[in-house]
Amino acid sequence: MLGAFAVGKTSLVQRYVNSIFSEKYQTTIGVKIDQRKVEVNGREVNMILWDIHGEDEFQKIKSSYLMGASGYFIVIDGTRKNTLEVGKKIQEMASDATQNAPWIALINKSDLKKEWELTQSEIKQLSENGWHIIETSAKEDYRVEEAFDEIARKMLGQQGKNPA
């Protein structure tokens, strides 16, 4: 889980792993690791989820955290346009560090869509530039399971449906 500070990375992981959501903000310091076993096309997969601290002007994500990653999410907060720019920079670094591992961009907080600073045309442009995008809401459990299932399929080399 990669992205700017306070985009909802921890909330997405907690929703996926423990089926919970908390309104209370939880700052991640360093890396928090969770796991969940899932079945992908009849194959059991043990997902090891690294929830890495958010990037901001004071703290950058270390590429060494990404070595050996089989796949990753870039999480963007739809209500904060600047998190897209941070996400773009992280994606470039992550692509190099993981030797082009599969990835998906999650535009989180779809429950606050009326407050989004990202426009549909900006999202469409990202898709046209090759970004696989899934809009999510950890709060409402919207497309969270679908996003993790999709990254698992991509990591196994089984291209599933494109839910964008």
| Large-scale geometry | globular
Derived from helix and strand composition plus strand pairing, the structural class reads alpha/beta
The residue ranges in which pLDDT falls below 50 over 5 or more consecutive positions are: 160-164
Task: Please bin the fraction of helical residues.
Answer: 25-40%
Nearest-angstrom radius of gyration?
15 Å
SSE series: EHEEEHEHEH
Total of helices:
4
- The order of strands across the largest sheet is 1-4-5-6
- Average predicted local confidence, pLDDT: 90
Strand content is 15-25%
Q: Count the beta strands.
A: 6
Description:
- The chain is α/β, with parallel strands linked by helices.
- Helices cover 29% and strands 23% of the residues.
- It has four helices and six strands.
- It has helices spanning 9-18, 82-97, 120-128, 144-155, and strands at 2-3, 31-40, 43-52, 72-77, 103-108, 133-135.
- The strands form two sheets. The chain has a four-stranded parallel beta sheet, with helices on both faces.
- The model is unreliable at 160-164 (pLDDT under 50).
